Amino acid sequence: MGKTTLLKTLCAADGGGQPARRYVSLDNPMLLALARDEPGLFLQRFATPVLIDEIQYAPGLLPLIKETVDASGGKGLFWLTGSQPLHLMRDVSESLAGRVAVMQLQGLSLAEALGEGASSRPFMPDAALGRSRARSGRNLERVV
Prior knowledge:
Layout: H1 3-12, E1 22-25, H2 29-37, H3 39-45, E2 50-53, H4 61-72, E3 78-80, H5 110-113, H6 127-136
Parallel strand pairs: 1-2, 2-3
């Protein structure tokens, strides 16, 4: 499961009586054009709570997102995903400091890639495991 699939699943799984979170992908050329050319209209069309995927394609949305968050005082109104970290995005002049929580998602584990993620326990390495594997001299790769 990639970041988009994970977040889309979380959008649909809200059981707390909150309105469903809308998913919008800026990979869609028409939506990207709207976000770039008319960011205010874009945010009116896709009211909060919303997940905007691939935000790096439309950095012009960020000042309006900042304004919306400041005006509402709400938390979690926007979920933003991207293929690059916000602080590395070119042309981003508005800071979302104090208004954003950044989560870095790791790649899939081998078990997840093989479709066994739901049935396997999370891998939590510790010093004892490291010593055990180092003593065994075994290759750490999984043989399939």
